[in-house]
Amino acid sequence: MTQRLTASTADQPSFEEKYGPRPLFERYAHARLRQLLLRQIATAIGAAAVWYFVGAIAAAFCVGITLLGEGIDALTLKFALARSKQGRPLPPLLKLTALSAALQSATIAACVLLLLFGAPTGEPVLIALCFLMAATINAGFVMSHHPLASRAKLVILACAIPIYVAHVLSSPAPLDSVFWVHMLEVLLLGYLAYTFAGFGLRSWRKRLLNERQLMEFTAYLEATNRELEAARLEAEASAQAKSAFLATMSHEIRTPLNAISGMGELLQNRDLDAEAGRYVTTIRDASKSLLRIVNDVLDFSRLDAGQLTLEHRPFSPRDTLEATKRLMQPLAEEKGLRFSLVLDGSLPAHAVSDETRLKQILMNLTSNAIKFTEEGEVNVHASATENDEGWRLRILVSDTGIGIPQDSLEKVFDPFYQGNNASTRRHGGTGLGLSISRVLARRMGGNLQILPAGPSTGTRLELTLQLEKAEQGFTGGETTEALPAASTPLPAMTVLIADDNAINRVLVEQFLKTSPVTVITAEDGRQAVETTRSRRPDVILMDLSMPELDGLDATREIRGLDSRQPYIIALTANAFSSDRDACMAAGMNDFLSKPLSQSDLHRALALAASAVELGD
Fold this sequence. Notes:
This protein has helices at residues 2-10, 15-19, 21-34, 36-53, 56-85, 90-118, 124-141, 147-158, 160-170, 177-268, 274-305, 317-334, 355-371, 422-427, 433-443, 502-511, 525-535, 551-559, 577-586, 598-613; strands spanning 313-315, 338-343, 351-353, 377-387, 390-399, 447-451, 460-469, 493-498, 517-522, 539-542, 567-572, 590-593. By secondary structure, the chain is α/β, with parallel strands linked by helices. Mean pLDDT is 81; it is low at 1-9, 420-425 and 477-482. One of its GO terms (cellular component) is membrane.
């Protein structure tokens, strides 16, 4: 819409192009030529009056000279109009058409005088004066478009009155009261002509003023619109550049992080002494913290750019909450905290929302509660209220930790805000968790807010979400409980690792070293296609960013092969949901994001083995 508005305003002529001397003259000429025949109605009426009061010969004379004047004026206007459109100098054309206009008015004045002089009685005088007034008003109305022609016409027509007065005064007959009545008529009709012409001219000038102001305001709006459009394009380009930068940085950070985390996991499974074990644990914990930071920054960027999309799938709220408790309870127990989950029985068995984002919010809230609580407990209480759209889910997360100062109750939801207390600085973090959680909650039809702490110290956070009703007959959803366990033994299969990074290939080989899996490798997408054609692997772990042929194009070519199709799993450092969608659209079956853990890889391969056995 903005682009259409810019195009339409850019096509508008300027004030001078619309109301300058040349366009006004051309408009005057067009109007005079267009109304030529219409004006002859007045000629016919005047000729009839002359015929009735003076005679047929006088009427014929009036018609002849009037048509002659109109014809000369029309030809002159046509000539001048053609020259004006050719861009010829305007002043000579204005003088020429003013002369023809004066000649045309002289023919009218002659007819009026003929009627005044030739009538045997005084009755025709009023008719003659009315014609003169009409011609005067017409001449005054064109003052706005052709001032020179208007003045010439008015001068010629005005001369008819003193000529008439001189004729009467030179007559041997004495002046009577009728003459003075005629003079009063002249004054009255002249005043009316002046009033009408003046009103028309003032209206025209006011219109020009309004038009100029409107065009100036339109030009201002157009300039503002162009500035806004430029700002919008700049903002979009900046957002795209930021998104591309973050996607690139995510990929570049996740690739070495995959090696650090994976090798740390392999080392942790070795028989290490206590000190070496602590070193490896520190490495793994640091890599997990770095991954959380990368994920938070990516989520914040996508939310800020409006690029984060929510899924709407059926799930079990109870299972999601209990799964969160199982994940977070070991962390609480490490600090000697009690972790309780209370479900009051009002939760629906199944509902529709984004289960992944709900888990993300719950993980943020509960991990913060555990992080900032040194002793006591962390409680999660969940309930739901049915409404017209489904259910209103309410989750209250409370702890007995350090609490939040009164002056920071709303600041904690600001991006990157971490407060100033020593505990916050000691625990670290990006300061994005609560900000992302609130935005997600609001995107999911709810809110996240801090409640008064009550009699005890600590923090109380209230999360509300709108859940939609699941389809009737739905009995289960896609939950992590349905995935194979990490300890599920893998059957014998051939797995192709297509990755241009040698460390990533080695890492996956080491993850699968103790399983009955035959591993083959390809260093780019083209090798992956050729190896698939010759070796026919059961499963392909396909990286997306590879030389020669990227993972998406390689997948499309493999899906076009006339042979048994492998189960293709995207193994990539690209973490956007759009990347997952692109992988599924290209024909992949699953998606694993780096850094990769051994347990995630085993689950994915177990699921692939099950799918291959079923013939999918």
